[in-house]
Amino acid sequence: IISMLAILFTLSFSALAQEYAPAFPRAGAEKARESDRFMIWKVSYEKGKSTGMRKLALDQVSVFLDEGAIKVTRPDGTWSVEEERLGSVRFEPKGTVVAEEGVSDEPSQATVFQLKDVVFPPWPTTEGIPGHFPRVGAVKLFETDRITVWEQTWRAGVVLPLHLHYLRGAGVFLDGGKIRNPITSKGIAGTPSSRDRDEIVLNESPIPAPHEEAQAEGTPREVFVEIKNHQ
Asked: Radius of gyration of the chain from Cα atoms?
């Protein structure tokens, strides 16, 4: 009996001590950008190709760029199939353990934002000038104690009001187009800048002058991950 208990204890301890591969790097994922706050990956979920069980070392936000189904399997063997669409967003906290594989014939594509565990001093604010968000054309998708995730659409004839950027963040464009940015407080309009579908943007330093923004061509649409100041 003692020998049997010893074996069971050893097996239990071994299961608790099991180590999993990190979420990244891995096959089907390419590092797209890196900054002081983010590690950003372009990920493809191919049909029948499992990632194997992997443990997230960092909080992460996945933004899906097309439709498709992904099978998510957990360490206890339970699984579910998630139907993704253009603009679907998934948040997974650090420590999550899952295996993923594509189910659809065409691979699902996503941009994954990993949030580094670092803290920086807040940027200065200007009295009377609001921040980047909330604003017209922006919908809050969800919020945690660290981040707020927004979906922003630039529409014809709508000028986004005067603002400054007080928080760090990063985003990816779901739909491309052209944005006239900046339009300064003196009414001086900048040259329209093109934004491509799947383009990544980083906001890692404050823009010095208050400015407006406006659609110039198409209907640009972006999902933006904004980091709160106390993180």
From this structure: 21
- Sort 177 into a burial class: Cβ within 10 Å, 0-12 / 13-18 / 19+: buried
Q: What is the arrangement of strands in the sheet containing 108-115, beginning at the earlier edge strand?
A: 29-34, 38-45, 108-115, 59-64, 89-92
CA 26, 32, 33, 37 torsion-angle sign = negative
pLDDT tens for each residue of 151-165: 999 999 999 989 999
Gap between the Cα atoms of 220 and 33, Å rounded? 21
**Exposed e or buried b per residue across 202-231, where buried means at least 16 C-beta atoms within 10 angstroms of its C-beta:** bbeeeeeebbbbbbbebebbbbbbbbeeeb
Given this model, what pLDDT does residue 166 score? 95
Distance separating the N- and C-terminal Cα atoms of the chain:
52
Rounded to whole angstroms, the Cα distance separating 39 from 54 reads: 17
CA–CA separation, 125 vs 80, rounded Å? 45
pTM listed for this prediction: 0.89
Whole-number percent of the chain with pLDDT over 90 = 79
